[in-house]
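2024-03-11 09:14:02 INFO receiving multi-entity request
2024-03-11 09:14:02 INFO entity count = two
2024-03-11 09:14:03 INFO echoing inputs for audit
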Amino acid sequence: MKTCDIAVYGLGVMGSSLAKNIMSHGFAVAAYSKSPEERARFQRDTGADTVCTTVDEMLEGLQSPRCIFLMITAGRPVDMVLEELCPRLRPGDVILDGGNSFYRDTGRRYEECRKQGICYVGIGVSGGEKGALYGPSMMAGGSLEGWKQTRHILQTISAHADGKPCCDYIAAGGGGHYVKMVHNGIEYAILQLIAEIWYFMSSTLEMSGEEILSCFQSWKKGGLDSYLMEISIQVLQKKDKDGSLLVDKILDVAEQKGTGKWTMQDSLERGVYIPTIYEALSARNFSGKKRLRMQGSEQLQATVQKVFVENPEETLGNALLLGMILSYSQGFELIAKASAEENWAIDFGRLIDVWSNGCIIRSRLLAKIRQTGILISADEPLLLEQGFSWLKELEPALRETVGKSVLSGTPLPALAGALGYYDYYRMKQMPVNFIQALRDCFGAHTYQRTDREGHFHTNWEE
Amino acid sequence: MKTCDIAVYGLGVMGSSLAKNIMSHGFAVAAYSKSPEERARFQRDTGADTVCTTVDEMLEGLQSPRCIFLMITAGRPVDMVLEELCPRLRPGDVILDGGNSFYRDTGRRYEECRKQGICYVGIGVSGGEKGALYGPSMMAGGSLEGWKQTRHILQTISAHADGKPCCDYIAAGGGGHYVKMVHNGIEYAILQLIAEIWYFMSSTLEMSGEEILSCFQSWKKGGLDSYLMEISIQVLQKKDKDGSLLVDKILDVAEQKGTGKWTMQDSLERGVYIPTIYEALSARNFSGKKRLRMQGSEQLQATVQKVFVENPEETLGNALLLGMILSYSQGFELIAKASAEENWAIDFGRLIDVWSNGCIIRSRLLAKIRQTGILISADEPLLLEQGFSWLKELEPALRETVGKSVLSGTPLPALAGALGYYDYYRMKQMPVNFIQALRDCFGAHTYQRTDREGHFHTNWEE
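2024-03-11 09:21:47 INFO inference complete, emitting structure
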């Protein structure tokens, strides 16, 4: 066997696609999987003579320092593979974890490997199967030494935008997996917003499939241009065998993987308000209550109105665009807070470059954010950046859409959450003073005053 | 020193109030605190001759089996006190933890104590300082043996409703602290709903203080009768020294303790949708961004309308009442799911009895829920119970209020979340099929169909 540049451990959908991508750029890959079926399929698909049947064979085939790219299921399997690999590795060897690992696990593994001199890189890989095959977006974190050893391969096989690779080192410890996690949270939000707008058009406004398709096609030519709009158009065109739209035959019950839930849990820990992501995650959870929803649709009456939107293409397009901006804003706020709390010093310009192509949330909007030269910090959310003052022009459309959804009885919670987030930033005064009064009343929690310093307690009964 | 019936360990606000309550019912209390100041103050306040200066003195003063009621800060301090206490205890002795401990910690401590034969009872205590002093609501969990040893004291000093003590054994392990946690989540929600309605009346509808007070007083005579409405009226009447309303001088920045956050995190883990609690927790978090809100109120324009509500007393009262029902419904759903997952077999009738008096969320509504004889289970949320079909009559008011809040640019997110929760249960069809199509398109996640079994994958590009 020839000496290989890198090993890929795990040959499932993502692993085999990534290995093929690396090979297509002239690198020699030692490919390994525990599963004989996966090995055989990969061998058959590629004709490669570097498919290894044991871990030792895989390691023997590598030049030094040895780089192993793990493409295996996140969680316990990663720890099991590390137990298998680490005793066989030497100081300076590099492990890349390309799965959706929880960032705190990655931080822990990085520390454990560092004690042995092993360079551990946690790397978020976005773009699905096709991304892995033709050029993913990759967010690296952890060992800077490990990154330097592998960046020439990673930045060759990644997607590119304006000649720049969409792959970079983002932060120490679990920082790479952290931003991938929030990327997925933003993805949840945008998917939900698109689905809500589509539902409002088809079910509430009763627009035809052709009318809806025409709006989406027009939007894609404008500020909403993005990968997710592109594939939405494919979905709106795809017919089932009987000639009707396939999407109408799909059951409205979704699964959710770990990253959306982790994003929410992390936001609660850090006290960052991301209502659009909360509603997107919740929609998937709630969809499982199909039987109760059927029952509720019979039992729970509602006083709703037939609503009408004068220019749906313009109004709903603007509402969706503002919803998308506010989803990015929420995600960036969370990353900024984490970056400050974890001392990651994340460079948002670099992060947006990485998200410019190859990943699921790539969009013209991100390019616009990048061009505006925005320096997002924990102190200033995206929606308050001077360069984004034009988003005010979209506000009436979002308000109209959310208002009419309430009247029509069509819940659009992710869109409503985006408007709520916008309106909260407009509130010089929140009703929280009333809450503070009540809490002082029943629990002597004390309150602060607007007119002088200190904490005060009142006997409210007197 | 005479032989004492029970020890109270910790003489802060809650601990000293509880000890005084127990003493006032004729029980002898061995009172102890690490803090000499707390001990001295308690001695001064009560004249008790059973204030102990060491843990050993406290234990020596107790009859066997010895019962120690911990009233200390939740978290690490509880483990430290257990390390101190457990080596000094004998099998059969009882420890009660009356703090707001995280329920999984309580479950762990229960197991650890059980190995030593010590009966560990985690007990949620609600009602604030006054409740502790005159009769709290108490939710016990953990050792049934420990409960049996102490129930005669606990049920004597607790609040009562219709002659029944508002104190009972709820569930094994950390189940007592679990329901107290969700109690606090519901409390967050109701506080926020009241504050939103008040804000909408004063800021958006520009009602005078007298008009608002009059509405609250009228509501309290009807279905909204509750402890929190009672103290809201106190707040609406309380004048500052200059004669203006004190609440207007309070800074709109709140703190939040652990229980609200824990409730949310637990709901994400179990996949239960509790948007009103999410928004209530978030309002407190967001309130801290006072500087950015001031900035946003200048920068972010909004196209808002002046709104008018024909009969605010009726409309806003009904909206608030439905919001409260839906807050209980969300909390009960979470408890029901946890009860099923943890094998707690929680009896909701018993739980509602415990919440009928003494606790912060006590209300006429809970009595109504109890009278309806509702059997809440994980399969049937409160809002779909036949006995609650009258809640439909309140729906137009909630929809009108939320709709007008959107138009007026006043975010009422907890109220909007309640309406969203209601409307989600009306959705025979959710837009989640569109999300499933997109996920299958970019990630080959597969989908289910409405017309046949199985998981399907489509090549959407063709």
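2024-03-11 09:21:48 INFO post-check: The beta strands of chain B are 6-9, 29-32, 51-52, 67-70, 94-97, 119-126, 137-142, 160-161, 164-165, 167-171.
2024-03-11 09:21:48 INFO post-check: Chain B touches chain A through 115 residues (CB under 8 Å).
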